Batch of 2 targets.
Target 1
Amino acid sequence: MSAIGRRGLMGAAAGLSLLAMPAVQTKAAKKYIYKYGNNLPLSHPLNIRSHEAAERIKQKSNGELEIRIFPNNQLGGDTDMLSQVRSGALDFFTPSALVIATLVPVAPINAVGFAFPSYKEVWAAMDGDLGGFIRGEIEKVGLHMLEKVWDNGFRQMTCGSKPINSPDDMKGLKIRVPVSPLAISLFEGLSASPTSLQFSEVYTALQTHVVDAQENPLPIVQTAKLFEVQKYASITNHMWDGYLFIASGKTWYRLPKELQQLAADELNASGMQQRADIAALNDSVQADLQKQGMTFNKPDPAPFKEALRKSGFYAQWKEKFGEKPWSLLEKYVGKLG
Ligand code: X2X
């Protein structure tokens, strides 16, 4: 572009901003544009429902609060998003509790192996004292956690080469787990050979056989198309995993109170709908994955639990998490280990 051309454009831009000034001044309200990042494909209920919440928030705030969603690891993997939300570069992030453990060690207590027998106990605990305790711990590191936890689901194992029927099938199995000491410890307790990878790397790691197996709730196996690179699904229900709706304390507390309330109300309401979506998917997803060529089996969980207990897993994590949160968990699920 010639020097004259550039000057011409700058002149036009300056003229435009002058023209725009009166409109900005009469509309006194400040506009907040906040970013929300997550690690899931657009088609996952977490993204569908958070998009709806963002639309309602924009509309009900007359455009004062706009939440822009960056799904599917567009802003980097979980580890990157976690540091962004800490620094305030990212305003909202939904990590699995497994992933936020590097910052808040007690957060993944919900993911203790085979702790929750069903969703009844999950939601009683997460909407009750246990969730409240976790929220308090998260607030202490300068983050704000919304009240309703969104559902990831009960995690199941998938494998490229064989079904998992018993703990014997776990011996030496190269399985990908999230970046989480608890997940590593659980799979080492089952004599597998776990590797931590961010979710952004999982599809390729399976495709190139860096690992043979992974574990995730079936709605993720479906929406992230892991069925393309995994043949067997074993219904192990080895842990329940949720998405914590986290705001950066640095930017959340800058929002006027009414906008905080609106965002919390709408996101919590969408979280409840998202839980129902996953419950509905849980009824249909196995049949869909079978149509995609996956083979299912349902092993008896008892020998897995027993192997974990013998490995010292429960004793070790009770000690790590501490008496108080451990007893809060046991209040909902009964004695563990
Ligand atoms: O990384 C995973 O496996 C996922 C998508 O389930 C989490 O966010 C923990």
Target 2
Amino acid sequence: MIYSRIIGSGSYLPRNVVTNGDLARRMDTSDEWIRSRTGIRQRHIAEAGETSSSLALEASKAAIASAGIGARDIDLIILATSTPDYIFPSTACLLQAKLGIKGCPAFDLQAVCSGFVYALATADLFIRSGQHRCALVVGAEVFSRILDWNDRGTCVLFGDGAGAVILRADAKPGIMASALHADGSHAGVLSVPGNVRGGNVTGDPFLRMDGPAVFKFAVRVLDEVARETLAKCGRQVENIDWLIPHQANLRILEATAKRLDLPPEKLIVTVDTHGNTSAASVPLALDVALRDGRIKRGHHVMLQGVGGGFTWGAVLVEM
Ligand code: UT7
């Protein structure tokens, strides 16, 4: 049997840190409101010259170094983003060129905040089929570019960043099970409903969201999909060493752990310092906890995404 294992990880955050206090000086909000409703204290915002591919490049270089491989060993690139540099070519192709490699397939995957979990599950299938042996899987976003900075209900929630892992074929798992879902009937609840037509922006180019509706949906499906993924590989909630849900809101994370009967100490939390970085949030949190030594070899980590679409999913990984 061929399985896939995570053999390295990396992440990158723009240097520009924007605190809740900074936002409160610009708009009608407060540190107290943002922290009590979301747990967020600050977020990183990309400078004008930074793009998803430039953030992805830094995260990928760190992942390649931590895996102890060379960029030429990569034979598949999947990049999850909803904020690509261009309509086309894909950000994955731009990243491939920036890494100085060519030839291997490279494509973007768009599943909004579930993007990294979708990309990881997809790369696992490519590797388990025997088609590819060493995948670079990235989540990279510059959500600050699609926020309406006059809408205090959304703009305080998000940040920019990128995270990446190297997934390599191995005789042992690795990725133990995954489950992916979507329900497009909720498209209007969380969307950027604009586009470009005839050289002009048509519709609304900013992120719009019914926050409370997303909140309720997220807590329910994160619980369900964790249990579904565990059942697929015959594991129990007690086997989870670390839970890394999409980092949208501390209250969603805590409610998910509670529904699963997991102690809050098993949650990896980065939403407080990163904000919601959409497809980048899960690999960013994974990299933080691998580097600070909390996640060790042999630990079972449940990665979970939920977001626009709606999309949701989970991957259970033995590190
Ligand atoms: O990645 C997936 C995408 N998004 C999410 O996961 C977000 C999920 N939802 C949430 O995290 C929460 O629903 C929010 C943080 C967005 C909102 O929290 P809430 O407790 O559901 O608050 P609310 O939307 O019910 O708003 C309550 C009040 C409103 O005032 P009134 O009408 O009660 O007087 C808002 O106008 O809070 C007001 N408000 C703010 N006040 C200060 C909304 N945004 C702000 C703000 N500062 N930034």
